[in-house]
Amino acid sequence: MIETDDLGNSAVDRLISAEAKSTQEEAIERALRPRRLADYVGQAKIREQLTIFMTRFTASRRSSKKSCIRRWRTSRSIS
Length: 79
Prior knowledge:
Elements (H helix, E strand, L loop, with lengths): L9 H4 L9 H10 L11 H35 L1
């Protein structure tokens, strides 16, 4: 039976930090993460969806840059 709700210093022990404990831990974490879509093993459906998304995003980004340049050139020629 619990008679008190005093947890002592256990709350301090439970703090979680996003910072790496050491440079070695950081290097291990980086080594575990995939760098390219081809590095994702056994997730063909997700890879396919990511490839489609990234291709469309890149294409839309390029077209928006081109339209910004066109608008900039047009505004300069009008002035």
